[in-house]
Amino acid sequence: MMMSTAAHRDEQQAPAAAAPDRRSARSSGRRRAAGPSDLLLLPALAFFGVFAVVPLIGVVVLSFTEWDGLGTPSFAGLDAWTAVLSDPVTWNAIKLTFLLTIVTYLVQFPLSLLLGTFMAGHQKYRELLSVLYFLPLLFSAAAIGIVFKALLDPNFGVGRALQIPFLQQNFLGDPKLAFWTVVLVISWSFVPFHSLLYQAGVRQIPATMYEAATLDGAGRIRQFFAITLPQLKYTIVTSSTLMIVGSLTYFDLVFILTAGGPGNATRILPLDMYLSGFRSNQMGQASVIAVILVVVGLTVSLALNRLSGADSMESQMEGA
């Protein structure tokens, strides 16, 4: 009798013990079913390999050659690397590139954050102001460069038309003003895009959080620092990465505005690469500069993700 009772108890416990295993198997099966199939990644990987990895390998190979762009490349060892790393013009371009990155970020980040937060609200005329803020997104970098070059012309620009002495300065021809003028034009061009990111991020914050803070007596400024900024953490990481890494690739806008001048006042690395390759016909040295840009961009991007903790954030999408 005691043996049959023990056996019956074991039979009752066995299904209970097996239930969690079955639930775990079902949940893991749902995760596998909900996640994207590896086959769907193949087209993207193929596209990335053909248009990113293969050209990068080609650039690395060219950096060890001597080639004028027309004849047959010849192996030159580290000659191109030595020439680039010992060139004061390139080092000045590196300095200007990092300075441009820092200054444009310091200008764009607070403006984008404040404008995005403002446009996410319900203020009067917000829709009209949003349209005006987003106008730069409708124009290409080439168009923006041409327009600003015409507006800032000391002889025929807006300063001469309005007879304003301050605006009649040669902003793009003065070595002391050209760099800072380029910074302002770049910031004007890209602030609307990042404002759009912050606007979308703010609208995802639950309104109940602000209502509770209001009941607790928190003002607008306190709510901004206690609720808005923490909730925008990953949006800030994404926007900052795009700002900083993107600033390493500015070419068309700067080329149209100043072409690297006056002198070398705005000759940043992308322009230095172009001028070395297509003006001086030194494709090997231009390839070295391209490799430096890639390495710096990857390093900055990885450092931002590591320092911000974005590399360990979990997706909130179902099944991800």
TrEMBL record:
Give the UniProt keywords, A-Z.
Cell membrane, Membrane, Transmembrane, Transmembrane helix, Transport
Q: What Pfam families would the database entry show?
A: BPD_transp_1 (PF00528)
Keyword Mitochondrion present in the record's keywords: the answer is no
Query: What superkingdom does the record give?
Result: Bacteria
Q: What are the GO cellular component annotations?
A: plasma membrane
Where does the protein end up?
A: Cell membrane
Stated name of the protein = Inositol transport system permease protein
